[in-house]
């Protein structure tokens, strides 16, 4: 709905207020902006927001800027005093809930579906929205591969910028460099290996339904989305020396934090795939550790005895116990 006040639409009013704010801000100012540039078309609103953030960063004021415009994080902004924060999440009574505490990093998802369901939105509408979301995600991935390559909040110092994610991919993706090409190769091969394995498990009735394999990237400084909390996943860390680390976990955010706390791993990029349960995650982890070297990738975790035994046969009780 477009709100008019004194003959102006909401975006005009916002621009008038922010113009006054920007023109008067100093290094001693406290600036609070909620959902910056939300009242206009996404691409241009993102660029206006990015330019405003640069201005506030240059002034050196203290402030918080929240946004759902994830394209801001892909713009070539000149920022010296800005930090990125996201809101933490936790599982309470089997439901994902925000902690209302800020944590380092960027998150590009939100709790939109959960919030809509909690407020009584018909389940039929939510399920259709989730289907459309997956369609848009796949479309963005395909566009990205040919062209290139939770609720969160933004905290600015300006001294920080917080992302309140609902987005479906990057609007402004830079051309792929060597690292980007490696990531694409890893994503493609990992997805293919996992799809084949899950199909095999489904045909052998080891799993009740065939799940879709969606490989998601968590870039440097980013955090996994709220939808990963309390769920099993496999993950691949791509290090700056082009070596890979394969793991599985029920706490992706915690595991990623532990890895990034190590020297040289602060900017590590990871890929992850949500899977139906820890047992499946363990099998896929072992399979990837054994097969990725044969595809030409170098791993930091080698296939030891239990990895060689585990997963050789889906029905092998000995193999299951070994892991």
Automatic annotation (TrEMBL):
Statement: the UniProt record of this protein carries the keyword DNA-binding: yes
Gene3D superfamilies: P-loop containing nucleotide triphosphate hydrolases (3.40.50.300)
Entry-linked Pfam families: GIY-YIG, MutS_V
UniProt keyword terms in alphabetical order: ATP-binding, DNA-binding, Nucleotide-binding
Highest taxon, organism lineage: Eukaryota
GO molecular function: ATP binding; mismatched DNA binding
InterPro entries: DNA_mismatch_repair_MutS_C, GIY-YIG_endonuc, GIY-YIG_endonuc_sf, MtDNA_mismatch_repair_MutS, P-loop_NTPase
Domain DNA mismatch repair proteins mutS family: start-end pairs: 29-45
KW DNA-binding (keyword) present: yes
Biological processes, Gene Ontology terms: mismatch repair
PROSITE patterns: DNA_MISMATCH_REPAIR_2 (PS00486)
Signal peptide: none
Designated name of the protein: DNA mismatch repair proteins mutS family domain-containing protein
Organism lineage string: Eukaryota, Viridiplantae, Streptophyta, Embryophyta, Tracheophyta
């Amino acid at each position: 709905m477009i709100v008019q006040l004194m003959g102006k639409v909401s975006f005009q009013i916002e621009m008038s207020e922010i113009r006054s704010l920007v023109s008067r801000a100093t290094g001693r100012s406290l600036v609070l902006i909620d959902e910056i540039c939300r009242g206009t078309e996404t691409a241009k609103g993102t660029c206006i927001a990015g330019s405003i953030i640069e201005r506030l960063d240059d002034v050196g004021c203290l402030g918080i800027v929240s946004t759902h415009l994830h394209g801001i994080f892909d713009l070539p902004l000149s920022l010296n005093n800005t930090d990125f924060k996201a809101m933490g999440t936790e599982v309470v009574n089997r439901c994902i809930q925000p902690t209302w505490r800020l944590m380092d990093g960027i998150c590009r998802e939100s709790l939109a579906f959960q919030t809509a369901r909690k407020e009584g939105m018909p389940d039929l509408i939510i399920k259709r929205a989730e289907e459309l979301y997956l369609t848009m995600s796949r479309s963005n991935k395909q566009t990205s591969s040919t062209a290139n390559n939770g609720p969160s909040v933004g905290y600015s110092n300006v001294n920080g910028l917080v992302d309140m994610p609902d987005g479906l991919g990057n609007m402004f993706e830079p051309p792929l460099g060597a690292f980007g090409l490696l990531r694409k190769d890893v994503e493609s091969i990992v997805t293919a290996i996992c799809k084949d394995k899950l199909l095999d498990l489904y045909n052998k009735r080891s799993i009740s339904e065939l799940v879709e394999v969606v490989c998601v990237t968590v870039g440097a400084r980013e955090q996994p989305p709220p939808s990963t909390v309390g769920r099993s996943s496999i993950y691949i860390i791509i290090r700056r020396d082009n070596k890979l680390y394969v793991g599985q976990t029920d706490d992706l955010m915690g595991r990623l934090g532990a890895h990034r706390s190590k020297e040289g791993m602060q900017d590590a990029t990871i890929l992850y795939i949500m899977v139906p349960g820890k047992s499946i995650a363990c099998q896929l982890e072992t399979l990837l550790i054994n097969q990725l070297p044969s595809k030409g990738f170098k791993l930091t975790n080698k296939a030891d005895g239990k990895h060689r035994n585990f997963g050789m046969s889906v029905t092998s009780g000995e193999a299951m116990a070994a892991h």
